[in-house]
Design brief:
12 strands; 13% helix; single chain; mainly beta; 2 helices
């Protein structure tokens, strides 16, 4: 008689249910280039499969052009965000979801004149850890960004560039 291999592995009881609430006092918030990112579900919680980040983007906020070898999906919750994908601009409004394929050059910017908020899921995880290593922990989603000196800003940029390849990212 031939033995069959199960299609789905056994349940791993060492992993637990994760409930992510952005208002939970245990949520870590990171200030990065004027944006505030809440680490809702980390790679540590998903065994590295994905991470989920609550992004609060003030008017004028957003990262510089970059690319990375993982998928990135954004759901706009409030406001609107302008995404530049392979050089073409797309304005995405609340209620919409946009997926950025791995390796594609892109960036986003809030050019709306009002704050915006979106969820970002990265598959596999890693972006959560990268943001935590290069940003500054703040008290919560409404906390002001730290007032950094020119020397401190330069240090953050240096650290971001130095760690980018470790987290499979490249600034353009």
């Amino acid at each position: 008689m031939k033995e069959t291999t199960p299609l789905i592995p056994d349940d791993d009881p060492s992993r637990s249910l994760t409930v992510a609430n952005p208002d939970d006092p245990g949520t870590t918030y990171i200030s990065l280039v004027g944006n505030t990112y809440g680490m809702l579900v980390t790679g540590e919680q998903t065994n590295g499969r994905y991470c989920l980040i609550d992004m609060h983007i003030p008017d004028g906020g957003g990262p510089p052009p970059h690319r990375h070898d993982f998928e990135e999906m954004f759901t706009i919750l409030e406001g609107e965000i302008e995404f530049t994908f392979r050089g073409e601009k797309h304005t995405v409004q609340a209620g919409s979801t946009i997926n950025i394929p791995a390796n594609a050059p892109h960036n986003f910017r809030n050019a709306s004149g009002a704050p915006a908020r979106m969820l970002c899921m990265c598959t596999p995880a890693g972006q959560d850890e990268y943001f935590t290593r290069i940003g500054d922990v703040v008290a919560g989603k409404d906390a002001p960004p730290p007032q950094l000196s020119d020397t401190e800003l330069a240090e953050r940029r240096r650290r971001a560039a130095e760690l980018a390849s470790t987290y499979r990212s490249e600034f353009l």
